[in-house]
Amino acid sequence: MSQYHYSPLSLGPNSIRLLRLLPHEDRNAPIQCQLFDYSLQESGERMHLYDTLSYVWGDSSNPRSIYIDEHDLPVTENLYAALLHLRNFSLERIIWIDAICINQENTEEKGQQIQYMAKIYGQANRVLVWLGNAADDSDQALDEIRAAGGKATNSLNNKAIRSAILALLQRKWFRRIWVLQEVATARHILIMCGPTEIDGYAFCLGIDSLKEVYESRAELQSLIRSVTYLIRGAIFRPNYVMSRTGGVPQAICTLGELIDMYHTHEAALLHDKVYALLGMSGMSSDDLSKANLLPNYEVEWEELLQRLIKFLLCEKISVETWSGKEIAVIKSKGCILGRISSVQNIISLDGRQSVDVIFKNTSEQLEYGEEQGAHWTLQPPAKPIRDGDLICLLQGASRPTIIRLRKDHFVVIMIAASPLETGQTESEYIKWPKLFARDFLLVWDWENSPKLQDSGEYDALVRTDDWVTEHSKTEVEGYLNKATRIWNVAMILDDLEEYEKAEERLPEAIEGYEIAFGQEHLHLPKGQYGRTPLSWAAGNGYDIVVNVLLKKDSINPNLKDSQSGRAPLSWAINNGHEVVVKLLLETGKVEVDSKDEDGRTPLWWAAYSGYEVIVKLLLETSKVEVDSKDNDGRTPLWWAAYSGYEVIVKLLLETSKVEVDSKDENGRTPLWWAAQNGHEVVVKLLLETSKVEVNSKDKYSETLLFRATQNGHEAVVKLLHKYIN
């Protein structure tokens, strides 16, 4: 008999095929069917009188034949068993079945029909769930579930029945990702296993009553919960739930939440882990087109995963993916918002989980007080949230990401959390930070592999099975990159005020830099919280390290530490490292006049420390405010005069940009301090400007002549008398 060949769909938009399953009195007779085109009209007042089948395709190695208009069409053994069960002895049945009603050889048609699937299942008379043929006492299991739903069971102590229930719940249907959309849009669900049938809502009631049978198995509990949550809602859905765009008008969840919840479910094609969830997101085809997520099986998987992540987070974010792998590496600037302080394991009837959150005020990046708590409810992700998980916001993202710390990176627990806070709206409880200071390396693993999830080191994770050997680095680069990753983690721990944990990680980072740069005995920072690798290297005069770091695109030469607000240039100047100062200035990217938290500029530090060459280098940039005051009203000239740095005083005066007689918070001028400390040459330089008030008094009414006389500075006293007279 000849093979069946599909004809193109002929009814235009909203056109699908339906299967007419012909009756036969003989159960063992060949299955005869017809296919016909059907148009899914926009929602009206009539019901569409067809059923849909929700099932697992199963093994395709030993196909069985059904006949469409006398032509052979191979189907899997599991689908064949379902059709035998559904075939009536005298009445035909109208059913939509994906493997038959979609031409699986036509990728363009598959992509088009997938967009209708939410509509197909939502407008069907019933969704028939086929769990498979009877086996492992499945009939007893379903009878027990039915009885439990009616509170009429006393058999939980029966080991055979408990085993039968567990075996039923571990069937592949509960792990298949497409079933989620199929039951999420359904209005009436009938569950079948062999000859035994049970209403979907009754099934959920029974499963809820039998939690003790499976609650000790976390993975199984998550799978069952995710499906029963959707089945339970079927009887409450209106007859016509579809929007004009073919999606669900009121989304089950955001696409990010759906991905977080269900990415560990199984699919024959990796693409389906995304496409199977689109119908539940409430996104129209226009929305999907703008997001570049319209179903298209010709798009490579790694490209699709990148598009998804950029849609969920930010288009400009860096994402690396690989063919055939359910894993992505995300690199982005970001900041820590806080941490999960406690997790309630009880899931509410609406499917949400409660967590308590503590927000952190990190480097004044957040507009909270010092610390603020909140109570969130979230859709529980496939990877359970734990106490101590961190909440970060990546630059450009509109929703926070929940992450978990590893040795030198973070793993993603929730990619785009959509929390509800008790009594408040989203805009009321989150005020996004203005500064994204940290470099985050995130690994989002969908493969549900404990080995991968618990891997401590990033390199061990991404090199598993040698699937990224093409991205391998030289040994030196490897040490440098690992050291930088560890240091980045340490800075994030500093932001969380976990200073001891941060400091514990730095020796390994320093060791990596020593190997990478061929240097020994590099200084280990102690008690210097939040310092970047560049600030550490600049502050210690490691010009080779500074030179290499400045060539890395990810390095921000102006990033300040979280303890004192000082940038790398400030640290280099503080210790007089002229070569490093030149390297930083030569980049043309350094903010030469950047202030620390005390209002001190690089020029302030150079004048304070007496580094004449560095003062000259800074002045030559013409980008410094020569007369900038710190928080105590002290200028670079003030410090140079106070300390008697004659050359620096002269350099500053030659700019003609200084207020020679500016006063500090105590009303004391540079001349006052030069006289007080007996710096004769400096006093003369200041007096010669003719811009100083020789009789100036501080707020205690003490004149500079009085202070010079009291301290025995005779030469200074003579100079002052000359100008006073």
UniProtKB/TrEMBL annotation:
Residues 50-182 form the Heterokaryon incompatibility domain. Keywords: ANK repeat. Coiled coil: none annotated. SMART domains: ANK. It comes from the Eukaryota. Transmembrane segments: none annotated. ANK repeats lie at residues 564-588, 598-620, 632-654, 666-688. This is Related to heterokaryon incompatibility protein. It comes from Phialocephala subalpina.
